[in-house]
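Data follows
____________
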Amino acid sequence: MAAKSLAQLNAAHTAVCCNRAASKGSILGTVWPNDLRRLWRRIAASEKSTKKFCSWREHSLKKSTGLKVGCENAEWHCPSGQQDGASSLKIYARVPLTTHNPPRYPRLVELFARSRPRLTGTAATASPAGSLAKVAKLVQPHLEQVETRIAQQAAAFDPAIEGYVVYAIGSRGKRLRPLLTLLAGGATREINPGHVDLAVIVELIHIATLVHDDVMDEAERRRAQPTANARWGNSLSVLLGDCLFAHALTLSTNFENAGIGRAIARTAATVCSGEMIQTQRRFDLNLGVQDYLRIVQMKTGSLFSAAAELAAVISEANPSVIERFKNFGFQIGTAYQIYDDCVDLAGNERATGKTLGTDLRKGKFTLPVLIFLRSASEFERERCCQLVLEERVEEMIELLKNGATNGALNESITAGSDLIRDAQTAFDGIKSTPYAEALLCLGDVLCEMFDQLRV
């Protein structure tokens, strides 16, 4: 294989391809789209080496039957922190399943591109998540276990849909819910496998809600990659979310304490109910702040609450301690949803990696909008409704930011920060441990995130 020094197939990480005739040796050619050729030209040492590699690719294609060059379902991703010009660059290819009963290979093709460093300038390195990374460091080994377990869940599904599940669970978010679960477990007792199991379950439920959210919002990007509905349409994506929900509930039956499984099922039902109520009340000018808070408490606060509460239950903490953790998670989760709603208005799509402005476009009146409407004049209310109905999101955002009206965005940020402070104050009675301190620091990190949105 002439170009092996430039691109090597890792035997443990080949691709799942929609072409049944493809051999493992030809997978690379199958998923080699034109975009990647351009990427390769940026990272390869020279144009000559690029041609050498492409020549090897074409040779591999000829050896497989009926193989088409380029797979429209291919996706390529350079891990953050690895820039073109680096001496060693990994590129991962993900090819979801698109036909019934395709060849069952593992999930990824892993390429190693080796080239000379740039002669001028220094390759930038991605900055860590800052304060959040410091909080997570305390439970990093356990978070890695959670990541491994989440990745392993795809194998539990039928081969025909395994690739879709891989795609849904393969992109990492902040993992706040698993982090909260593990810290709560450590704050009440030594972290054990039950806490890791719980962290996996709550994250799977969260991922399922994201899949469904993207369908309802018609979002095109999530976590810096196309959403499932953008790739395969709404019908398949709804079913994918259903599968993830069902699998999470199946995992919850493995706890010896049957009450944990029942609590998780109740939480999943509450989350879905919150989403339904929010959808039911789209474009509803009679929606009040208290109505909004009830919705976000159900759709987000309840899952954070369950993560913290059930972690304490697994630790066999006394009832008063369990209640404190339950309330802490509830308030932190509610505050985080307020933050997420503010990001949808004031965030940056490139930084967040997801489609923004979807709430306004879909008539979901979040806290900034409701605070504005609460004190707006009749003219301002009519203006607001007109902008929403016409999907003039940018003008609506400016209206919410405008301090001459009421600075609704900043007021929402203050409300979310106050919730976090209340949660921290109520948590003071918990025995001081590194894990308990980390939970309080998690609240501080969320407050910092709020502050970055202030205008």
About this structure: Residues 24-114 form one domain. The chain has a mean pLDDT of 76. The CA atoms of residues 131 and 275 lie 31 Å apart.
